[in-house]
Specification:
Length: 522
C-alpha cells in the first residue's frame, strides 16, 4: 500500500510538472507572438508615418508651387499695371488750356521704376519662384508709380486751376470795364441768395444758410477748446495725469465698440453716459470723474466727439459694417447730451467738408498743400496722401454720418425725436445735388450715403425719394460722367450699377451690418 501511495504521489507530481511545463511553453509562445505582433505594428506605424511624411512633403511642395505661380502671376499683373501707368506720363504733354508743362522728371522716374520692376521679376524667375519679399518689393514700386501719377495729375490740375483763376480775374476785369455800358441790359448774371450759380442752375458755392450753420458749429467747437485750455496747457504733473485719465476714460470705450452683442454696447453706452453725467467710472484700474477738474467735462466732450469721428475715418473706412454699432452709441449719447452732437458735427465737417456739404474755394496766396488740407486731404512732410486713401477716409465718415441720422438708441426716450434725424439726410442729399459735382468724390460719397441710408429715406419719403433717384440718374449722373476721367471710372460705374439695380427692383436693400431687433437681445 505504501508503495502504491508512493507511485501515485510520483505520478501526481509528474503530471503536475508536465502541466506546468506545458503552461510555461504556452506562455513563452504567447510572449513570442506578442513581441512579433508589437514589432510588426511598430514597423507598420513607421511605414505609415513615412508615407504621411512623404504625402505632406508632396502637398507642401504642391502648395509652394501653386503659391509661387500665384506670386508670379501677381508680379506680371503688377508689371502690366506699372507699364500702363507709365504710358500716362508723356514728357511732351500739352493741355488745351495750358502752355507746355515739363513732365520730364516724372517720365524719367517712371522709366526707372519700370526698369526696377523688370529686373526684380527677372531675378525672381531665375531663382525658380518669387518669394513674398519679391512681391512686397514690386508692390512698393507699384505704389510709388501710383503716387508719381497722382503727383503729376495734381500738378496739372493745380496749373489748370491757376490758369482758370487768372482767366476768371481777367474776365472780371473786362466785365468791370463794360459794366457802365451793360447797366440797362438784363442778361448779366445775378448773384442769387443760394450762392453763385452756373447757367444750368447748379451752385458753385454752398447755400448761405448751410454755411452759417457750419460756421456756428466751428465757433462752438473753438469756444469749447478754448474753455479747457488750462487743462490742456498745464505743466503740473497732477493735472497732466488727470487729463490723461479723463482722455482714456472717454476714448477707450469708443474703441471697444463692436457688433459682438447688444449687451456689450449697452455696457459701453452706460460707461460713457455715466462719465458725462458726472458719475465716477472705472478706467485703468482706478475711479475717474469729470469733477476732478473744473474744465474736465468740456475736455471730455471735445475728446469724445473727436474720437467718434476718428472711428468713422479709420474703423468704418476699413470695416463698413462697423458704422452701425458706432452710430447706435453715438446717437444715444447725442440724444442725452446735445453738446456732444454739436462737437461731433464740428469735427466731422472739419475733417470731411463734404458732409456739410461744402467745397472750399481756392484763394489767391493759399499754397497747394494748405488747399488740400482744406479739402480734407492729409498732408505730412509736404506729401499729400494718395487719392485712394483719401476717398476711403471720406467714405468711412460719410457712412458713419448716414448711419447716425437713421438710427436711434433703442433704450432711449422713444417719445422724443431724433436729435439729428432723416430730415438732415434729406437736406444733405438735396444740397449735394444742387452743387456742381467733383470728379471721383461726388460719385463715391453719393453711393456710400445711399447704400447706408437709402432704405430709411425710401421708407420715409417714398414717392419723393424715387423722384430724386430719377433726377440723379437722368440729370445729375451725366454731369458727374462729363467730368470723370478714364482713371476715375471705378466709383462712377459702381454708383451707376447701384442706381440701375435700385430702379429696376424699386427697392433699396437694408445695408450690410444693420442691427436688427434680435441683436439687442444678445
Amino acid at each position: 500500500q505504501r508503495q502504491e501511495q508512493q507511485e501515485q504521489m510520483v505520478r501526481a507530481v509528474y503530471d503536475l510538472a508536465s502541466e506546468q511545463l506545458k503552461r510555461f511553453d504556452e506562455l513563452k509562445e504567447l510572449k513570442r507572438h506578442q513581441e512579433f505582433q508589437d514589432l510588426q505594428e511598430v514597423l507598420n506605424l513607421k511605414l505609415r508615418e513615412a508615407q504621411q511624411q512623404r504625402q505632406r512633403q508632396e502637398e507642401l511642395e504642391r502648395l509652394r508651387k501653386e503659391e509661387g505661380q500665384e506670386r508670379l502671376r501677381r508680379l506680371y499683373s503688377i508689371q502690366e499695371e506699372v507699364l500702363q501707368l507709365n504710358q500716362q506720363i508723356d514728357p511732351n504733354y500739352r493741355h488745351k488750356d495750358l502752355p507746355k508743362i515739363d513732365l520730364s522728371a516724372y517720365s524719367s522716374r517712371g522709366n526707372q521704376i519700370c526698369g526696377l520692376v523688370s529686373g526684380l521679376i527677372r531675378t525672381a524667375s531665375e531663382r525658380g519662384f518669387p518669394t513674398q519679399v519679391d512681391v512686397a518689393n514690386i508692390e512698393r514700386a507699384l505704389q510709388e508709380m501710383r503716387g508719381l501719377i497722382s503727383s503729376m495729375q495734381q500738378e496739372i490740375a493745380a496749373a489748370v486751376e491757376e490758369k482758370k483763376r487768372r482767366d476768371e480775374e481777367s474776365r472780371k476785369q473786362q466785365e468791370l470795364q463794360k459794366k457802365s455800358q451793360m447797366k440797362a441790359q438784363n442778361g448779366a448774371p445775378a448773384q442769387l441768395p443760394g450762392g453763385k450759380q452756373t447757367k444750368e442752375g447748379h451752385q458753385v458755392k454752398t447755400d448761405k444758410s448751410i454755411m452759417r450753420w457750419y460756421q456756428e458749429l466751428q465757433d462752438a467747437a473753438n469756444r469749447c477748446a478754448a474753455s479747457f485750455s488750462a487743462i490742456s496747457n498745464c505743466k503740473d504733473s497732477e493735472v497732466k495725469k488727470t487729463k490723461m485719465d479723463l482722455q482714456k476714460a472717454a476714448t477707450i470705450p469708443v474703441s471697444q465698440i463692436s457688433s459682438i452683442a447688444g449687451s456689450q454696447l449697452r455696457e459701453i453706452f452706460d460707461r460713457i453716459n455715466n462719465l458725462l453725467s458726472g458719475k465716477s467710472v472705472r478706467s485703468g484700474g482706478q475711479n475717474v470723474s469729470v469733477t476732478q477738474h473744473p474744465q474736465g467735462l468740456d475736455f471730455v466732450y471735445y475728446k469724445l466727439a473727436e474720437k467718434f469721428v476718428s472711428q468713422g475715418e479709420e474703423e468704418v473706412a476699413s470695416h463698413r459694417e462697423a458704422a452701425f454699432p458706432i452710430a447706435a452709441v453715438a446717437s444715444g449719447i447725442w440724444e442725452i447730451h446735445p453738446q456732444f452732437g454739436d462737437l461731433f458735427l464740428a469735427h466731422l465737417h472739419k475733417k470731411c467738408p463734404y458732409s456739410v456739404p461744402f467745397y472750399p474755394a481756392f484763394k489767391e496766396g493759399t499754397s497747394m498743400e494748405e488747399y488740400k488740407r482744406m479739402l480734407g486731404y492729409q498732408v505730412k512732410d509736404s506729401k499729400i496722401e494718395e487719392q485712394d486713401h483719401f476717398l476711403k477716409r471720406m467714405s468711412g465718415m460719410i457712412r458713419l454720418y448716414a448711419a447716425i441720422i437713421q438710427f436711434r438708441w433703442p433704450y432711449g426716450n422713444r417719445q422724443g425725436t431724433h436729435p439729428h434725424g432723416l430730415s438732415y439726410g434729406w437736406r444733405w442729399l438735396a444740397h449735394m445735388l444742387n452743387m456742381e459735382p467733383l470728379a471721383d468724390v461726388t460719385a463715391t460719397l453719393l453711393f456710400d450715403f445711399l447704400e447706408v441710408c437709402g432704405n430709411a429715406l425710401m421708407k420715409q419719403y417714398q414717392v419723393q425719394f424715387w423722384k430724386m433717384i430719377l433726377l440723379i440718374r437722368e440729370d445729375y449722373f451725366p454731369r458727374i460722367e462729363a467730368i470723370t476721367s478714364s482713371g476715375q471710372m471705378g466709383s462712377l460705374i459702381r454708383f451707376k450699377q447701384f442706381l440701375e439695380e435700385c430702379l429696376q427692383k424699386k427697392e433699396i436693400p437694408l445695408p450690410k451690418g444693420f442691427l436688427q431687433s434680435s441683436f439687442w437681445r444678445s
